[in-house]
TrEMBL record:
Residue intervals of the Aminotransferase class I/classII large domain: 33-194
Required co-factors: pyridoxal 5'-phosphate
Keywords: Aminotransferase, Lyase, Pyridoxal phosphate, Transferase
Keyword Transferase: yes
Short name of one Pfam family: Aminotran_1_2
Pathway field: Amino-acid degradation; L-kynurenine degradation; kynurenate from L-kynurenine: step 1/2
One annotated GO biological process: kynurenine metabolic process
GO molecular function, one term: cysteine-S-conjugate beta-lyase activity
Protein name: KAT1 transaminase
InterPro entries on file: Aminotransferase_I/II_large (IPR004839), Kynurenine-oxoglutarate_AT (IPR051326), PyrdxlP-dep_Trfase (IPR015424), PyrdxlP-dep_Trfase_major (IPR015421), PyrdxlP-dep_Trfase_small (IPR015422)
Assembly and oligomerization: Homodimer.
Superkingdom of the organism of origin: Eukaryota
Species: Indicator maculatus (spotted honeyguide)
Keyword Lyase: yes
Amino acid sequence: QAKMSRAVQARRLEGIDKNIWVEFVKLAATYSKVNLGQGFPDFPPPDFLKEAFVRALSGEDQMLHQYTRAFGHPPLVKVLAQFFGKLLGRELDPLTNVMVTVGAYQALFCCFQAFVEEGDEVIIIEPFFDCYESMVRMAGGTPVFVPLRLKAPEAGSLMSSADWQLDPAELASKFSSQTKAIVLNSPNNPLGKVM
C-alpha cells in the first residue's frame, strides 16, 4: 500500500505558517459573528452589475473571455501610465512601468519578490500588517523590526494614533549595509497612524 510522503516546505517558511486572517474567519464562522476584518458580503451583487456581466459574456467579442497580459491588459496599463505620468510629472512606459494586480496583497508580494534578494534586510515598523514579515521571508530577506512607541497622552486627553511615535534614532540604528527597503505604511495598519 502506497504512503504519501510528508510535506516538505522551504526552510524560509519556518515559523510563518500561521495567518491571523484564517483564524478570524474560523472564529467568526464558529461563533456566528460579523467579520469586520475582511469583506465577505452576505448579499447578492446589485442587478446593474449582474446585467453588465451577462452583456460582457454574451457579446460577440470572444477576446473578453481570454487571458490577457499577466501584468495588466494593454489598454488599461496605457490609460494608467498616462494618468499617473501626469501626476508624477514624467512619462511612463505602460508595458514596463505599470503593473495591475488583484489587490494590494498581490502588489506587495510582487514588490518583495522583485526587489528583495536572499540576505537583504527589510525594515518593518511595528505593529504591521501581518503579510509583510512572511513576504519578506518568502523572498529570502530578513525582517528587521522597529516599534512605534506609545507616548502617554496628556491627562484628560483621549489616546489617538498620533500618540504612537517612531524614534528617529532607533530607526537609524536599524540601517545596515544589508538594508534593501523599509516598509512605510501610512496610515499604519492596524493603528491608523499617519506618518
